[in-house]
Amino acid sequence: MTIFDRRPEPDPMVSSPVPPSPPDSDDNPRIALAALVRQTVEFLVSLCLCLMLFRTFAAEAYIVPTGSMAPTLLGLHKEVTCTNCRFRFVLGMDERGRSGRAVCPNCGQHETDASASIASSGDRLLVQKYLFDIRGPRRWEVAVFQSQNEPNQAYVKRVVGLPGEMVQVRGGDLYINGRIARKSLAELRAIRQLVYDNDFIPKDSDRFPRWVFRRGPSRIATPSGWKADGSGFIHEPSKYDRDLVDWLDYRHWDPDTGRYGPVRDVYAYNGGDVRGDNTVSDLMLDCTLSVRPDAQNLVVRMNTVTETFFVTLPVDDRAKPEVRRGGKRLEVGPALATIKSSPADAPRSQRLEVALVDRRLMVAIDGKPAFDPVDFEGVLSGPTPFATPVSIGVQGGGVSVSSPRIFRDIHYTSALANTPKRPFGVESPFILGADEYFVLGDNSPVSNDSRFWAASPVVHRKDFLGKPFLVHLPGQLFSLRVFGRSICWIPDPREIRYIR
Fold first, then answer.
1. DSSP type of residue 155
2. Distances in Å between the alpha carbon of 42 and those of 35, 36, 314, 470, 480?
3. DSSP track, 189-256
């Protein structure tokens, strides 16, 4: 800090005495050491004061003890590495250190050994205090609050119902005032649950492939141009490309049944003893593409329980994007982002996201919407192949697809781990009062939230403590190695993350 001397300047005609020079610090080590100690003490005192002020007026730390918000926020858990696909996942524990049977959510391996896993505490959160004194909580926002059922216990859940609204959980979805509550793409990214990641290919993929190649209808035996390439796939052009779409079909392996089947609400955190009893049709594809100039169209097919959607994305703005629901063409707005081609010797990658969630179709390219979301109501009749919920197709030309991942939306359940509790807002809508909110946990099958509280399902605005914004000390660990040997386990800095 600069200190300004307010004394009058000396007369320039009068010479000022020259002050003696300070002793050289190199010649006075005691003075230098004393100055260093003083600076260090001042820094530490200032740091402590800043931390106290920050904690008092800005943020406070909380620890997550349970898994009701898993996998968004983790409680007590073990970290398990699958022996079949090397996918690392977490398995929840109770306060006594007991956990369920480890089942890999990526490949469905049941024989995964969890005995060598490392027990970890819950995530540590930084909570922004007093934010909800300025504004009310918003839908899909994570919040910390005190419940009327346990006034001395802080809870962390996701806000879904706002004051004055009529809330109901029906068919796994959230309904507000009788209409399905739709998420934006950013909100979906915060909530989505991983189903399969092709960066972790199972050892048994030769016997039970997760991605299969097929050109045209299944009854036509036409050679496919797709081939595997590490954790991705490459499509080579052929003479059939102009007539038929060459499909890369995802086949889902159900961890509960040990065979191909529909995507279900399976949570690895809960262990294999808590089954996924509900079929989930709200899915999302996330992958990276590199498209050659000879490619005409990229096509994504999404299969739900009763209907099929086709999304056609022309390469290099050759035409307008097209969406078909079964045989019916839906209205699509102008293209906002497009698939761009690049030569084979200088490939350029683009990220593609396609989501069919909450009766809303969303497509994004490099994080930007390809067109405005397409909302629809009702369902179409007819059977759908459950085991192939997502497909990527190309018409004409070369394409490479890397790191494809499949996600699902949260399926809100009507029961709490099969306990005979009569839930609020499930069999009939629940109407919230002027300052009342309805909250749900992301780990719906085991989350004790507004649906199952005995006294009242609501959280009053005055009971909110703040908004968690950062996992500053993750519960997940990694091995610290020195000269190739593991010396200890420390919090994994890669898991430090903002809470959306």
1. E
2. 11, 10, 63, 29, 33
3. HHH-EEEEETTS--GGGGTS-SEEEEESSTTS-----EEEETTEEEE---TTTTTS-EEEEE--EETT
Q: Hey, what are 412's tokens? A: 């809100």
The CA distance from 116 to 83, in Å, is 12
- Residue partners of 67: CB distance under 8 A and separation at least 6: 74, 75, 76, 77, 92, 269, 270, 443, 446
Nearest to 362 by CA among 336, 401, 394: 336
Compute the average pLDDT of residues 296-325.
92
Helices (H) and strands (E) in the chain, counts: 3, 35
Of 260, 261, 256, 200, residue with least CA distance to 445 = 256
- Tell me the per-residue pLDDT of 99-116, one tens digit each, with 9 for 90 and over: 888 999 999 888 776 666
Per-residue pLDDT of 456-479, as tens digits, reads 899 999 999 999 999 988 888 877
- Beta-bridge partners for 362: 355
Kindly write down the DSSP assignment for every residue of 340-385, as one continuous string. -B--TTS---EEEEEEEETTEEEEEETTEESS--EE--S---S---
Token pair for 448: 């004790």
Token pair, residue 219, equals: 């009854």
Q: How far apart are the first and last CA of the chain?
A: 38
CA dist 380 and 58 (Å) reads 51
Give me the pLDDT at residue 415, please: 84
Interacting residues of 454 by C-beta distance below 8 A, sequence separation 6+: 149
Does the pLDDT of residue 40 top 70, yes or no? Answer: no
pLDDT at 9 over 50: no
Residue type, 143: A
Picking from 376, 382, 332, the residue whose alpha carbon sits closest to that of residue 358 is: 376
Tell me the C-alpha distance between 465 and 49, whole Å: 23
Average pLDDT, the chain: 85
What is the b/e burial string over 56-67, where b = at least 16 CB atoms within 10 angstroms of the residue's CB?
Answer: eeebbebebbbb
Q: How confident is the model at residue 14 (pLDDT cuts 50, 70, 90)?
A: very low
Residues 91 and 103: their CA atoms lie apart, in Å, by: 9
Assigned token pair, 168 = 């109901």
Whether the CB-CB separation of 159 and 141 falls below 8 Å is answered with yes
The pTM assigned to this predicted structure is 0.85
At 494, the pLDDT band (50, 70, 90 cuts) reads confident
pLDDT above 80 for 432: yes
pLDDT of residue 1: 39
Backbone angles phi, psi at 266, to 5 degrees: -90, 135
User: In angstroms, rounded to a whole number, what is the distance separating the alpha carbons of residues 440 and 316?
Assistant: 43
